[in-house]
Design brief:
The complex is a heterodimer of chains A (400) and B (318).
Chain A lengths: L1 H7 L3 H20 L1 E3 H8 L3 H13 L3 E6 L9 E5 L5 E7 L4 E6 L5 E7 L7 H18 L5 E8 L3 E2 L4 E2 L13 H9 L3 E5 H12 L8 E6 L3 E7 L2 E2 L30 H5 L1 H12 L7 H9 L3 H25 L3 E5 L1 H5 L2 H10 L5 H4 L3 E4 L6 H15 L2 H6 L2
Parallel strand pairs in A: 4-7, 7-10, 11-14, 14-15
Antiparallel strand pairs in A: 1-3, 2-3, 4-5, 5-6, 8-9, 11-12, 12-13
Chain B lengths: L3 E7 L3 E7 L5 E8 L5 H19 L7 E8 L2 E3 L4 E5 L4 E5 H8 L3 E6 H12 L8 E6 L3 E7 L2 E2 L30 H5 L1 H12 L6 H5 L9 H9 L3 H25 L3 E5 L7 H14 L10 E3 L6 H12 L1
Helix pairs in contact in B: 3-10, 5-7, 5-8, 7-8, 8-9
Classes of the chains: A alpha/beta (400), B alpha/beta (318).
Amino acid sequence: MLRERHRSFTGSTTLLKELNRSLVLDALRQQGSLSRAQLASLTGLTAATISNIVEELIAEGYVRSEGQGASQGGRKPTLLSLVPGARHVIAVDVAVDRVTVAITDLLARTLAMEVLPSPAGKAPLAVVDEVAAAVENLAHRRSCPPILGVGVAFPGPTDVETGTALTAPNLPGWDHVPLRDLLAERVKLPVYVENDANAAALGEKSYGAARGVRHLIFLLLDLGIGGGFLFGGEIYRGFQGAAGEVGHMIIDINGRRCGCGSTGCLETVASGIALVRRRAERLGREEPEKLSLLLDAARLGDAQAVADLNEAARYIGVAVASLANTFNPEMIILGGRLAVEYPPFFDLAAETARPRLLPLIQHHTQIAMTGLGRNACLVGAASLVLQTIFQPLRLAGNAP
Amino acid sequence: MERYVIGIDLGGSKMAAALADGQGRVLAEERRPTPVEAGAEGVLSALAELVEDLLRAQNLTERDLSAVGLGIPGMIDRERGLCLFSPNLFWRNVDVAGFWRERFSCRLVVDNDVRLGAVAEAEWGAGRGARDLIFVALGTGIGSGLILGGEVYRGSRGLAGEIGHITVSRDGPVCNCGNHGCLEVYAAGPAIARRAQEAMASEPESLLWRLAGGDKEKVTAELVSLAADQGDELAQRIWEETGEYLGIGLASVATLLNPERIVVGGGVAQAGEKLFRPLVRTLKARAMTAPGLTYPVLPAALGSAAGVRGAVAAALKL
């Protein structure tokens, strides 16, 4: 549990050791293979410390020696590398129309996954039970190494300290659900809960298009529209944990009514939900079709579907420009099915945004496609667990 | 030995400086016109003179100073002490720190004036105690200082906070920046004057005609405020709409940042209740609602002194 980790940090020598271990693991994760000397110079740790840590990590199976590197004069150094399968991680992506549960290795690569039906209309407890069953299945299907924990990406604001889902604009019934505790009780593993777009931003930083980027905005363009703000390398959550609600920026002074109570929100014109609803209205259907069908139609050249998606992309472009002008991030990443599964979407959004950027902002803002395809939230969920061994500083900082 | 700091707020028309002690208590102040027409060199020389005069009047020398803070209306490279661009001063890539080093040996910190205003309101004004704070400056333009987690948030190049160019309506009127529908086109001082002028054409009875001596072009935001206070319906309507536009723009910012408090200052905010009432009402109606979410809006407490006080705070933090 999170709480136990905190307790283990209370002794400062334990904390220091834990941090040094993570420095070594993270260097190996990022660089592939390294010699002990390279590890020492990269981490700033002494040769003796490196030696101790490496010995420990080899004993625990995290690290293995892997042949010999080029000699710098003298004996050829032994190269060390991370063993990606040494531990596994469970990633859960709760989306409005499906729940994905996956098992990944230490590099956040998916090894197996189960897709569960839509959580909409179900009681949160029922959904938690289904997720727990899927976790059991995945964990026991293979002769599995130890599982470090479960990361959950949730489509709404969350309280990460308590692991509570605060609310979900597009998933009624999920107000103040203690998701972490409910799931941890069932799976007997540490559970970490985070807003889906925030998780995706973390995933992009460690495994995707934003490696080394300190100021990042991730836009999750799917049924709903989410935003993850990474400011100075850390998720920015705001006073009550509700920051980043990009879908509820106002883009039209006199717009349509939005589910959030406002009018003219970006979600009313550029979200997957708005698009499928409008299409159903136009075709005189009661029930909106699935987003995947709309995306298929657009790819096959259905003129109306193309026009609707293109208009949505242009609205997203306007929002991207507002975000860049206001927050001056290094990079804005577009992810989610609208961006990933309808190829013209990204280009249209970027083309709309570019000329709207203020002159000095223009040269310094990258608008990028997700580096994680349709798995951005899933990889993000995995990274919630993985960061506890690769970058535990954040946890240590939260310790009481 | 007691060490002092000086804070300077360099504006397009006036420059103000304050000498403060190590606790930030202001001991002496001085205000002079900015000789913009003399160019960057001329303005910076005038600034140096202002500093020297301020010291001399207190029987102090540069050696008694620990640092100087300088706020400039424009885009600043804080690390290098450069003013990248200031439309009000007509500056582009001015090496402020370089000029300073030729004249003085004490340290100088250069920052954007609104960011410094935010620091001052957070330290001594309406933002005291808030960790996540948006300070909005309404004037010729609309800028902001974002204090996130107790620190000024600057973004990757120090340019974060330009909320005047957030789009509130994609197909709205054209802004100076070339975009359509920026918040600034609706609610900055010149926009308020422009909207009043447009409305005057069909309302010959408006008090604004008399206050402007029959010349529409003489109408300013200040005059629209005066007319509204004297009961002019057109002017009151303009403020009502201005508050609504700002409420919409700030609803977006509030929804994005979930701040603890929003502090609104700058010359245009002097309009007071007639601006704040519609602003707060609209913000409440248009920001995302969720159980427990609140966005308190307060008028700035330091008025026109915020810039100087922020510069003092920045110098103290050096």
